TrEMBL record, chain A:
Its main location: membrane. This is TRAP transporter large permease protein. It comes from Acuticoccus mangrovi. It is found in: Cell inner membrane. It is a multi-pass membrane protein. The chain crosses the membrane at residues 5-24, 30-50, 57-77, 97-129, 141-167, 173-201, 222-242, 248-266, 278-299, 311-333, 340-359, 365-392, 404-428. InterPro entries: DctM (IPR010656), TRAP_DctM (IPR004681). One of its GO terms (cellular component) is plasma membrane. It holds the Pfam family DctM. One of its GO terms (molecular function) is transmembrane transporter activity.
UniProtKB/TrEMBL annotation, chain C:
It is a multi-pass membrane protein. The keyword RNA-binding does not apply. One of its GO terms (cellular component) is plasma membrane. Its main location: membrane. This is TRAP transporter small permease protein. Residues 53-166 form the Tripartite ATP-independent periplasmic transporters DctQ component domain. The complex comprises the extracytoplasmic solute receptor protein and the two transmembrane proteins. The keyword Isomerase does not apply.
Length: 433, 312, 177
């Protein structure tokens, strides 16, 4: 059996194990280790097993995950998140599905500072699920708007994936960042449109709009000032170079802690619950990263992505067909693979092929990051879906996966627009030269 | 092919070390072996290309060949890294050839379990800063600078700057946001990591070099048929060592051109100024060597041998 | 069984508290570094140039996150919060679901045990090499100790979950191993 075929078989086995209820991290990790042993021997697998947990927890950039979770828990426990939602409700609550819209805008704003999709989903999810439930929203809509909203952070600068693409292909990171702005706004707009259409067709998805007086509305908006202040400090601090986006997580957590202390919200039982919540969610996210690391070791030595890209490159198809195949390839691979590993493994091979056909390198970067990010919410393996389930354990997988479909349609529309109108990405960088 | 070899390194495929050094090297080995050998490359960003794991991976035979940074993870290749002390070598060619010449007698204990193919160092790197113009040692005071090596960290500290540890891929973002004031780095990174976009001032003090190793698992090498062993030998050692000088000149030139095209401030230190900087750093160099001596490494002897080579 | 359970519960409460404190420590150190930096900048306006910073902030944050994440993985095993998909299993009869849950728990124990066994070997190798962290130059063993402890606790938690699921003394909630 050829190595790529072993890789393909590994995908099938991992998927089967996940579908019979094995924890995602365990399925990915076991298949990764066994597959690596088949391809590279037991001693190689031992090396990989010993390395994966260390390498999954060591990178400094991942410190944002526990810190943003900490911020989310403090914010929720001291009522900051409720304040924020009341304010959002006061502003857009008259619209049907207003809270879902607010969730998407909040995710986009958060993504603008953070850059990590998992951290965005974990933070916003922790806050938004209970609030939307209290407002009478169907889990299907609330869960999906959080998972989809989380992907916005990947595209809206600063974006880790765009930095990596820029380094791999020697493209200007500044140009990539400015090229991502309009597609990022477009994505936000289309998600909003998707929500509006969903609640029009199925009014039962959203809670009833609340009739608020003007004074109540203003009071609700003003009451959110501590939350707004924390947000302003976090964003302003990054903009003025006081700290890095990675460090902003610590600032946000400290801000939420101060508010919680000031409001005397951290009673002993609440603190106990907060500890358990932060810790078990942290463990859940990092264990998935451990499993995915093991799985990626296996897939990459099996040479599956490289093999598929090679097949596309040598197919002799027309430029349009190749582009279509590339998009399909990323979407399918994205169902299983971590987006960052996917970009590292495939872009060096695919980039020369695509640019030789006359496609713009900056535009292609936006396209690749867009499809890689869509992979985060495509079932059956979508990291955002898993993290969301971890944050709100009583959400059923089916609810989350069904709910995400209308957002995937919005993504398809966006992809089509990006392909049909490349200047959506290229206009802004062209004005900056 | 009957023999499949895995070569892992930590650099993006757009980097010169990948496309002018390792990729052609791998193809040359395949060709020399008459098709007996196939080399698959795992570049930076892949799991196998994790910079901190390359040394372990190649010693354990998880990959057959690897190209790594001597300084990551810390605490290894301590003899080789003496070459990273400030103001010792003044060009990549000089440093790379000196390292290879000193390898058998002085540096070999660093490379247990490995068939060493090459040891090399880049052209002396610069102080690159975002807004502060640096021309004298005093100008570094209070600046937060990304450091390249352990010796580079000690150098920044000795000059009054604050060393900041960051992976190369994160320098851009942190410099753009002003979290760091600059980086001690090569010209090459100005292009390959796009740093010319954020670093506006450049002091070419010829301050330091970073060392790299390129090696094969010893058991893998021993298991090769004699003709393939011969191919490996012919493609490495002296023949390879001599190439790094011109290569590094070529790679650095790309970054320097980018910086010039942006119209940035570039200051080049003369020999007299370099001597003054070196004098200031003498206590730091002494302390660095003394610490190694305490670990039982003949650091002063190795340093002297390197100085002799550098003076030639 | 219930005595074992209560002892283990206490053990994991300690682990969770330590993990939480590590996260809070990472937060505190980062904020302290930012404040020092800000103070240094303000002093710089008055002509001074102090390089105030928390020494080795990145190293220390990594150590804290390593500690927190390793222990947290074990706590998540204990509390059954590792994510699983119930797409197909929710419709199955209880007996089958229980069997699958036991198998899943044993799979988790096996993965953690494999990582533990190979990890101990790797830690020994690091000891031999005295691998050091980038800025502070502290030994990597400090990073490995919490990792090994977390993996060992994970094995215990997953095995206990398997036994309890088999005996029916643990509910099969979603994401339960
Ligand atoms: Na972002
Ligand atoms: Na997916």
């Amino acid at each position: 059996m050829s190595d790529p075929l072993v890789g393909l078989l590994g995908f099938v086995v991992a998927l089967a194990l996940i579908l019979v209820g094995m924890p995602v991290a365990v399925a990915l990790g076991l298949v990764g280790a066994v597959g690596f042993a088949i391809l590279n021997g037991v001693s190689g697998a031992a090396f990989v097993l010993a390395s994966a947990p260390f390498e999954a927890m060591f990178p400094y950039t991942l410190s944002v995950i526990p810190l943003f979770l900490l911020m989310g828990v403090f914010a929720a426990r001291c009522g900051l998140s409720r304040d924020l939602y009341s304010a959002a409700d006061a502003l857009v609550g008259r619209l049907r599905g207003g809270l879902a819209l607010a969730t998407i805008v909040a995710s986009a704003a958060f993504g603008a500072i953070c850059g990590s999709s998992l951290a965005t989903v974990a933070t916003i999810g922790r806050v938004a699920v209970p609030e939307m439930r209290a407002a009478g929203y169907d889990d299907r809509l609330s869960a999906a708007s959080i998972a989809a909203g989380g992907t916005l952070g990947v595209l809206i600068p600063p974006s880790i994936l765009l930095v990596i693409y820029g380094i791999l292909t020697e493209q200007s990171i500044g140009a990539l960042f400015s090229a991502a702005i309009i597609p990022g706004l477009l994505a936000t707009l289309l998600y909003g449109l998707s929500v509006a259409i969903q609640v029009r067709l199925m009014p039962e998805l959203a809670g009833p709009p609340r009739a608020l007086g003007r004074r109540e509305r203003r009071a609700d908006v003003l009451a959110a000032w501590p939350a707004a202040l924390i947000f302003a400090v976090a964003i302003g601090g990054i903009q003025f170079g006081l700290f890095s986006p990675t460090e902003a997580a610590a600032v946000g957590a400290a801000g939420a802690l101060l508010v919680a202390l000031a409001r005397r919200a951290l009673t002993r039982p609440i603190l106990g619950a907060a500890v358990m919540e932060v810790v078990s969610t942290t463990g859940m996210v990092f264990f998935i990263i451990v499993g995915a690391t093991l799985f990626n070791f296996f897939v990459e030595t099996a040479g599956l992505p490289q093999y598929l890209v090679g097949a596309i490159a040598e197919s002799g198809f027309s430029a349009g067909t190749v582009l279509l195949l590339v998009i399909v390839f990323y979407l399918v691979l994205g169902c299983f693979m971590d987006s960052m590993a996917m970009i590292f493994l495939t872009v060096p091979f695919i980039f020369p092929v695509v640019t030789a056909m006359g496609y713009d390198p900056i535009w292609f970067g936006i396209l690749v990051v867009t499809v890689a990010e869509i992979g985060l919410i495509t079932p059956p393996i979508g990291m955002n879906l898993f993290v969301l389930q971890g944050v709100a354990p009583d959400l059923a997988s089916r609810t989350v996966m069904r709910g995400v479909v209308p957002f995937l349609i919005a993504d398809a529309v966006r992809l089509a627009l990006l392909v049909a109108v490349p200047s959506l990405a290229l206009w802004l960088p062209s004005t900056m030269r | 092919a009957e023999i499949e070899l895995k070569l892992a390194h930590f650099l993006p495929t757009a980097n010169g070390m990948h496309h002018t050094f390792m990729e052609p090297w791998a193809r040359a080995l395949e060709e020399c072996s008459g098709g007996k050998v196939a080399v698959e490359i795992f570049p930076g960003g892949t799991q196998l290309g994790n910079v901190a794991k390359l040394h372990d991976a190649v010693r354990r035979g998880v990959v057959d060949i690897a190209h790594g940074l001597s300084g990551l993870p810390g605490g290894r290749f301590e003899r080789t890294r003496i070459a990273e002390l400030p103001f010792l070598f003044s060009s990549a060619g000089e440093a790379s050839e000196a390292l290879w010449a000193l390898y058998p007698d002085y540096l070999a204990p660093d490379y247990e379990g490995l068939k060493v193919l090459a040891i090399h160092a880049h052209n002396p790197g610069q102080f690159h800063t975002t807004t502060a113009s640096v021309t004298r040692p005093e100008d570094l005071r209070g600046l937060r600078l990304r450091f390249p090596t352990a010796a580079g960290r000690a150098m920044i500290e000795a000059l009054g700057g604050t060393p900041v540890g960051l992976p190369p891929g994160e320098v851009y973002e942190n410099a753009e946001k002003g979290v760091i004031d600059g980086a001690v780095f090569t010209w090459e990174t100005m292009a390959s990591f796009n740093l010319a976009e954020v670093m506006k001032h450049h002091l070419d003090a010829g301050a330091y070099v970073t060392t790299f190793w390129f090696a094969m698992n010893e058991d893998t090498y021993e298991s090769l048929p004699d003709d393939v062993k011969q191919c490996v030998d012919d493609l490495s050692g002296d023949a390879l060592a001599a190439k790094f000088g011109p290569w590094w000149d070529e790679w650095d030139a790309i970054g320097l051109e980018r910086v010039k095209a942006e119209g940035h401030e570039i200051v080049v230190l003369g020999e007299a100024d370099r001597a003054a900087w070196r004098d200031r750093l003498q206590p730091m160099i002494e302390a660095y060597l003394a610490e190694l001596e305490e670990k039982g490494i003949n650091a002063r002897e190795i340093y002297a041998a390197m100085q002799e080579r550098a003076g030639e | 069984m219930s005595l074992i359970r209560s002892v283990v519960d206490r053990l994991f409460l300690v682990a969770a508290t330590l993990a939480f404190l590590a996260i809070v420590a990472a937060m505190g150190l980062t904020v302290a570094d930012i404040v020092l930096r800000l103070a240094a900048r303000i002093t710089a306006l008055a002509g001074g140039r102090p390089g105030w910073a928390v020494p080795g902030l990145v190293d220390l944050t990594q150590l804290a996150v390593m500690t927190a994440a390793s222990l947290a993985i074990a706590v998540a095993f204990h509390r059954g919060t590792h994510v699983a998909v119930d797409l197909l299993t929710s419709g199955l009869p209880t007996g089958t679901r229980r069997l699958l849950a036991v198998v899943a728990a044993l799979g988790g124990a096996a993965l953690a045990a494999l990582c533990l066994y190979t990890g101990v070997g790797e830690m020994r190798a690091q000891l031999q090499y005295t691998t050091l962290s980038a800025t502070l130059g502290i030994s990597y063993v400090w990073y490995w100790v919490p990792l090994i402890a977390g993996l060992a606790l994970s094995v215990i938690a997953a095995l206990l979950a398997a036994v309890e699921l088999w005996l029916g003394t643990r509910p099969m909630q979603l994401g339960d191993v």
